[in-house]
Amino acid sequence: MIEFQLDSTSGVATYLQLVQQVHQALQLGLLEPGDQLPTALQTVAKLAINPNTVHKAYRDLEREGLVKARPGQGTFVVKSLPRTDPATQTRFLNSMIKWLRDASAAGLGPDDIEAIYRTAERNMFVEGVA
Amino acid sequence: MTNVLKTNELGKQYGHKWALRHCTLSIPKSKVVGLVGPNGAGKTTLLQLAVGLLSPTTGTIDVLGGRPAENPSQLGRIGFVAQDTPTYARLSIVKHLQMGAWLNPNWDSKFADQRIDDLGLDRRQRAGSLSGGQRAQLALTLALAKRPELLLLDEPVASLDPLASREFLQTLMEVVEERDVTVVLSSHLVADLERVCDYLIVLAASKVQLSGDVENLLESHWRISGPRRDARDLPSNQHVIEESHTDKQSTFLIRTTQPIHDPAWKIAAVTVDDLVLAYMKNARDVEHQPLSTLREVS
Fold it and tell me: What is the pLDDT of residues A6-29, one digit of tens each?
């Protein structure tokens, strides 16, 4: 069983910190299919956070197909973290390099590029949930 | 969504001074609500109106579908822990529990006994000899053993050390997970409440400045900064909460549910702390503006 920790200075939403810690534990092999996640009760009793935060994190993980809630028993890992296909990674890496070259040729600096990336990411997220 | 507490134009006046005014709000069921505001904003007044310790000067308040304290059974459904978690100093813990059992028809003595054991307290000890943290836990235990549907806590952790405060909130969150209870916690410090609340009400200058689901509030407020610009030139869907300018740069805290497309802006997410401070500052500035400027604004 893993134990959640919170970094209150990270600026990352609490539920997302829980999701990320499960992802990391899966990648590191600390969690494997069949393993149980801490219950919401254990987690709130340790971290003094709102139970809905834990439920939200577990719902996200369940939607990703990584864990499954068994009523009355708890939440269990059902899948290792699927790794991205290396060919797909290379394809997107290459198109990103091309994009960066174009941006640089157009006179954009690293800060401009980062600002554009953040804006694009955030707008996609806002539109995605709206 | 059902509301467990609903006020309409609620006001309470002491002499010439309004402790609370034009307070219209609703608290949805099963939330953990942070009632935040500066000292003197009316938080305690609102909570005392909700339990019937005070009666309104104007407006209405409805709690669990009835008037506050209209009958004993209505009172039995509400748990209230007043500021500084009062207990009877000369009574022992066991006497407190007996009294709770006599006074409350739904008293859960099993829960109360278990909690006192978990806290490692000696039942024969007088409440007056407990530490601040232990006394707060005793007061919370008494309120919870009533099995309330609504639990109101006035500044519950203000006087506790960090460890006692954490333990208090741990207990509270365990109960929220185990039962269907709506909790309202007041505080003048956001940091106390940020982890535990999923609903936020900012009360300042005796009015509600902001109210809503924490998640929605964080998704609809942004801090944007860029080349100097007048607030009036922002798109109409961007409502300015706070602004500051230098000769070249402008920074705004805005509320919007629309994407921000302007590439000139550097956009940052806000924290609950940012929100509370911005709305509190807003309220103070409006309060202190001369009347002529106020008219101009509206």
Answer: 987 777 888 999 999 999 898 877
Q: Where are the domains of chain A?
A: 14-77, 86-129
The residue in chain B having the minimum alpha-carbon distance to the alpha carbon of residue A39 is B177
Q: Which fold has domain A14-77?
A: Arc Repressor Mutant, subunit A (1.10.10)
The secondary structure element, H or E, covering residue A70 is: strand A67-70
How far is A48 from chain B, CA to nearest CA, in Å?
4
Tokens matching residue B276: 């509370």
A50-93: pLDDT as tens digits: 999 999 999 999 999 999 999 889 999 999 876 667 788 789 99
Residue of chain A nearest B32, judged by CA positions: A50
pTM beyond 0.80, yes or no: yes
- The ipTM (two decimal places) reads 0.80
Q: What is the CATH number of domain B3-213?
A: 3.40.50.300
Strands (E), chain B: 3-14, 17-28, 32-36, 58-63, 78-81, 150-153, 182-187, 199-204, 207-213, 221-227, 239-245, 249-255, 266-269
